[in-house]
Amino acid sequence: MDVVSLTLYGRAWCHLCDDMRAALEPLLAEFGAQVEVIDIDADPSLEARYNDWVPVLVHEGVELCRYHLDEPRVRAALAGHRATPAC
């Protein structure tokens, strides 16, 4: 089975980003998933796109939540990936 990867767009100085990452850790452990944290300030196009919206958590191009972790939605996305049979 492939490892599920989520993308967390945020900023180094963003306390909501830190909070979301901390809240996400138990789910990552439970589902064997990983998160790639991307600092939007390092990329002008990402900064323009997400400037006032961070943190934003994305899975396979779909925004799962912003500002605060939506645990039921993230859990459903991770569980749905787990249920997908390998090709």
Order of helices and strands: EHEHEEH
Shape: globular
Number of strands: 4
CATH class: Alpha Beta
* C-alpha Rg (nearest Å): 13 Å
Binned, the helix content reads 40-55%
Structural domains: how many: 1
* Architecture per CATH nomenclature, i.e. the level-2 architecture: 3-Layer(aba) Sandwich
Question: Could you list the spans in which at least 5 consecutive residues all have pLDDT below 50?
Answer: none
Put the structure in a nutshell.
This protein has 87 residues and is α+β, with helices and mostly antiparallel strands. The chain has helices at 15-31, 44-50, 71-83; strands at residues 5-10, 34-39, 56-59, 62-66.
Structure notes:
This protein is of the alpha+beta class. The protein has one domain: Glutaredoxin (3-Layer(aba) Sandwich). 43% of the residues lie in helices and 24% in strands. The chain has a four-stranded mixed sheet, covered by helices on one side. The longest helix is centred in the first third of the chain and has 17 residues. The radius of gyration is 13 Å and the shape is globular. Pfam families: Glrx-like (PF05768).
How does the SSE layout of this entry go?
Layout: E1 5-10, H1 15-31, E2 34-39, H2 44-50, E3 56-59, E4 62-66, H3 71-83
Parallel strand pairs: 1-2
Antiparallel strand pairs: 1-3, 3-4
What are its keywords?
3 helices; 43% helix; 24% strand; Glutaredoxin; four-stranded mixed sheet; alpha+beta; globular; 87 residues
